[in-house]
Amino acid sequence: MFVHQGALLSNRVPFAVDTLPECLENEPNNEPAAAQRVNLPVIVNGRIDRPGDVDLFYFEGRAGQHVVAEVKARRLDSSLDSALKLTDSAGKQVAFNDDYEDKAAGLTTHHADSRLSATLPSDGPYYQYLVDEQRKGGADYGYRLHLDAPRPDFELRVVPSSVNVRAGTTVPITVHALRRDGYDGQIDLALKDAPTGFKLSGARLPAGQDLLRLTLTVPPESQAEPCALSLVGQATIQQRQVTHAAVAADDLMQAFIYRHLVPASQLEVCITGSPHRFTIGAAVAGPIKIPPGGKVRVPVSAPTSTFLGEVHLELSDPPPGITIESVSLGREGGEIVIQSDPAVVKPGLKGNLIVNAFAVRTGENAGKGKAQRRKSRILLSALPAIPFEIVAN
Questions:
Q1: Same fold, 4-148 and 153-272
Q2: For residues 374 and 311, what is the distance between their CA atoms, to the nearest angstrom?
Q3: One digit per residue, pLDDT tens: the chain, 393 residues?
């Protein structure tokens, strides 16, 4: 948000909103005898206001109760590098956490906020310690401490945030599920209020998986301006239907090792050119069932060649152990034979197979001493995603 004062406009300031009850931290609360009493669920708004300050809170817990404590500070531009420790009334540590990586905070390069989750071993008082790990403090070291029961949920990120694609063709996209507090169920994906001609294939993220590659097919007409699309995910969580919009993002690397899902304003698709004069597709009614060591024939539509060269079909980043055994194309239709390696794949694996169609041309290229063969490859389109499941024989 921004703050106005007359003609002056502040810089952008993060502003957090939640549905839980809130309170302010009260000093002094550095020792167990002076710990601030709170009732769960609650958000405590506080500050490590001097170097070495300890903020301590206590609550009454029950045996078997599941408690989640989470600090939101660095994600709100605070200087705090928090650490959390939960103890029982005797001072025995129940849980501890220093840094927690929140993949939803794609612009945070140092994940200095803390989060812990614990099942309480007995009835009685419990003490939640919050400190700055660097033993610093001051006016810039504010925080919001969430104390609550687990709230199973998810967020979605769709990558990349911008897609350039030829009219009438199909392109892979990737959806990341950022699961929270133990939710590991299936998530069904769909386009919301999309213009006619856009279609998702393979739009079901299996239970227990955090990433899904699927495909987007675009209309057969080019468009002068990029089209903004909205993708949503729906799931059943604790007998409730939950729907969340996917945030467009880009998968970027920091310091040659760390990856961040950096959010963008929207998912934009730029459709250019004219559609191919031939059809590339697959006829799959539902997930194909592949037994370990078995084979499945998948009907496909693709020409044997184009003016750009022979048509080759290839799997794009398939799961280990799944390969194409053979491809046959012809005027009356074609098929690909998918096989699995029993030493690698196991029953229960689900997902999508992405098949790319290339035009390949081989020609002579004068080399030093003798003629050399030169091969060119042009990506024509992807086939609509082929859902699959590895099943027991």
A1: no
A2: 16
A3: 666 777 787 777 778 889 999 999 999 999 999 999 999 999 999 999 999 999 999 999 999 999 999 999 999 999 999 999 999 999 999 999 999 999 999 888 889 999 999 999 999 999 999 999 999 999 999 999 999 999 999 999 999 999 999 999 999 999 999 999 999 999 999 999 999 999 999 999 999 999 999 999 999 999 999 999 999 999 999 999 999 999 999 999 888 888 899 999 999 999 999 999 888 998 888 899 999 999 999 999 999 999 999 999 999 999 999 999 999 998 777 999 999 999 999 999 999 999 999 999 887 655 555 555 667 899 999 999 999 999 998
CATH code of domain 281-390: 2.60.40
Contacting residues for 105 by C-beta, under 8 A, at least 6 apart: 75, 111
Omega within 30 of 0 (cis) for the link into 41: yes
Question: What is the fold, at CATH topology level, of the domain defined by 4-148?
Answer: Jelly Rolls (2.60.120)
Half-sphere exposure of 177 (CA within 13 A, CB side): 30
The domain covering 153-272 belongs, at the CATH homologous superfamily level, to Immunoglobulins (2.60.40.10)
CB 361 within 8 A of CB 308: yes
The model carries a pTM of 0.90
